[in-house]
Amino acid sequence: MNISVIGLLALLVVSSGFFINDSFAEVNENSAYLLEGSGYAVTEDQIRISEIDIGLSSHQQSGSSIDFLIEDGFVTLDNEDFLISELEGKFLREGRYIRINGNIESMGGFDTTISFFGRLVEESKDAAIYGFTGRITTIDNSYKIIYTSKLSQLTKIIETTETSIEDEMLTIRILPGSSGQGVADSYIPSGETRDPRLGGSNPLVLGYFSEDRITIEPGTTITLVNDDSVSHSILSGKENYGDRHDPFTPDGRISTVEIFPGESIDITFDELGFYRLYDPTYPWMKIVVYSFPDVDNLILGSTKNQQGN
Known about the structure:
The chain is mainly beta. Helices cover 9% and strands 47% of the residues.
């Protein structure tokens, strides 16, 4: 009887461990991520809307933890922007938790400290949702923050020695109908599995670009092909989150000529770091590119560990 009970308990422990391990997001070392979220910053006297939008890169794993650095992004309090200055963080227990600490800088140049702690809520094959609590401490107030945030990896473009495959993988296409934002029969969010090129009486567009979040090595050239029916151009810049009238401020790193329908253009990314690309005429058309040294053969694009072949 005792042996049976012990065996049953052991089976339950093993089974529970399996289901727990299967239910939380695993993160990879030496990878690039975006963390995007919104919520509230609260004091005894006021409640302010707050947003977070940061790009980060993970580093070497130690036990069940992986350190990461914040490479780019901002935090907002209502219409006030805080730029990333000295922020770092850690993935804990294979991605169950996220900790972020350090300084951000107000537009007036004043340092503000943040201390956030996130717990995994849910995940899909494309991203993971975290609930964050913590504090933003300015020179005037200390705000308690409550966020819901999405963590997603950037897809990595893998170069190959076979020219035909390499050319295909280093090509990004502006998809048909991308200029018509909000048309229900021509747009579904990027990441869906349906493909308009498979046919059908009412094909749907997979976002606005064939890839809109990618990681490349510095010096990589990407061919951008315009499959839309109107002309497009691409700039890089800082996103002014929540500003509908001036959603981006160009930074001068990337600026293309007009790309007419059916034509293409090559864009080379020489510098390290995050590039936020957009079409100034159709600013909902956005791409995030992370120029990141290739330190191993990990394939990005999922919250699950995958090893390259």
